[in-house]
Amino acid sequence: MGQPEQRAEGAGPFTTRLAWRLPEGGTAVWESRLARRRGVIAVHRPGEPDGRHAVADPVSISRLRRLNTVAAVAFVVGGVLFAAGAGTAQFGSGDPTESAWIYFAGGLCFNTGGYVSLLQVVNAPRHDVGTGTLVTRRWRWWSFEPMRLDWLSVVVLFAGTLVFAVDLLDSFLQGLDAQQVNRLIWAPDIVGCVLFLVSGHLAFLELCHGRRCVHLRSLAWWIVAVNQLGSVLFMVSAIAAFTRPGTGSLVNTGVANWGTLVGALCFSLGGVLQLFERP
To answer: Where are the alpha helices (DSSP H) in the chain?
Structure first.
């Protein structure tokens, strides 16, 4: 017996939307983000013009809700701490160690949010083309699935949080000259920002199925857009934080601090919005 007729959409070799005919009639439509965040696929059967959603089983729903809450809260708290660190650097006593500790605490929250986001993808229910349902799989702490666009996006995001951790740890070092600061602190900061931007771009590709899109009524689109704006502001901040070898001063201290502060608040807002993108 052959496979049901299928129609796939996505970016390049990646499938982010799949529609197929059901054996008993009607069609099912699986979308990557909708399935892994809300645990549903769209099912249209004869006699049901508006269609309905096939929901994952209670185990998957409970699992996705817990993971979504932990990831969202981690990004909210991490963003607030990063904003507080930038505010302390801009308006505080001028002691760099004080803001470094606040940044470090925020970085741990971002690490947590990044890894839990990966767990969301790894443990998301998978679609069954034959029945038009979502199937729960055993719990896993890691997977290697480079042909999944959502997996690539969150792996790059998690890698970015780990690179930021290197930057934050190195910021506690004392007595560094300008070249050492740029090599040990500024360079990892730039790499982390690039990884965040790449992750956001991949998230847009997943959400828009490989095309450019603006969905102002879509909560998922706003989450990705707000987080990507935060990544852009982090990159602006990182560029402004380059230490001039001749003077030992930053390119623009104000831009560096304000870019971090506003960008961090974007990630906090994205976390708040993510709390509502649940099963």
So the answer is: 32-38, 58-91, 96-122, 149-170, 178-181, 187-208, 219-240, 253-274
Question: Which residues, other chains included, contact 232 with Cβ-Cβ below 8 Å and sequence gap of 6+?
Answer: 197, 263
Contacts of 254 (CB under 8 A, 6+ apart): 90
Dump pLDDT digits (tens) for 169-192: 998 988 888 899 999 999 999 999
Tokens for 167, please give them. 């930057």
89-140 pLDDT per residue, tens = 888 766 788 889 999 999 999 999 999 999 999 998 887 766 667 778 889 9
| Half-sphere exposure at residue 101, Cβ-oriented, CA atoms within 13 angstroms | 3
- Provide the 8-state DSSP code for 128: E
pLDDT of residue 50: 56
Strand order in the sheet with 27-31: 6-11, 14-21, 27-31, 40-44, 52-55
What whole-number distance in Å separates Cα of residue 8 and Cα of residue 216? 24
